[in-house]
Amino acid sequence: MSWGFLRDLLSGVNKYSTGIGRIWVAVVFIFRLLVYIVVAENIWKHEHDEFECNTRQPGCENVCFDHFFPVSHIRLWALQLIMVSTPSLLVVFHVAYRENRETHHNQKLYKSPRKIDGGLLCTYLISLILKTGFEIVFLVLFYKLYNGFKVPRLVKCDVRPCPDTVDCYISKATEKMIFLHFLVATSCLCIVLNLSELSYLIFKYSLKCYLKRYIKEHQ
């Protein structure tokens, strides 16, 4: 598939982000999207064909692969990339709504349609919460589906129609595990960045509101 739409989305969101948000965009684009396109897709490209079991029983190999890999690592990674990037559309849509509203009324209704304040601030905070939630959900999903963040070289399968317990071998297990750990590390980094930006925005605007109230009281 073409990942151009995701690249354009991230580039568009970058215009409205804070400094921490721009770091998040850079991490997603360079360390996740580009790594996925350039390297990871090729490693998992023939994972089913390279999965081998020491039996000639028809159907055994397919059933064992489905048992140990209910969802391919690479497809789950792709879904994660899409899901954690989608909440950014909320910010893009909100800014577009502000700009269209000003055009429709033919007057300036906001100091700056792209400035993160008021309703746009709420939308931005919701997008950060959703992105963080999706990151955590997918990390838990990875852990539950594959019994940890590891890719064993050998798995033992006794699922029917296998005649008995058979040994199945996963190709490029070490290489896959390295990239799986890289995925987990970048996901954790993105969670930290999202929480940092969330804390920063809440603190910044809480302080701003407090100062406004303080000045009014002393006037």
Task: Give a verbal description of the structure.
- The chain is mostly helical and 219 residues long.
- The chain has one domain: Gap junction channel protein cysteine-rich domain (de novo design (two linked rop proteins)).
- It is built from 7 helices and 3 strands; from the N terminus they run H-H-E-H-H-H-H-E-E-H.
- The chain has helices spanning 4-14, 19-43, 60-68, 73-85, 88-105, 118-145, 173-218; strands at residues 52-53, 154-157, 166-169.
- The protein has a 3-stranded antiparallel β-sheet, covered by helices on one side.
- Helix 1 runs antiparallel to helix 2 and helix 5 (88-105) runs antiparallel to helix 6.
- The mean pLDDT is 82.
- The chain crosses the membrane at residues 21-39, 77-97, 118-143, 178-203.
Layout of helices and strands:
Layout: H1 4-14, H2 19-43, E1 52-53, H3 60-68, H4 73-85, H5 88-105, H6 118-145, E2 154-157, E3 166-169, H7 173-218
Antiparallel strand pairs: 1-3, 2-3
Helix pairs in contact: 1-2, 1-5, 2-4, 2-7, 4-6, 5-6, 6-7
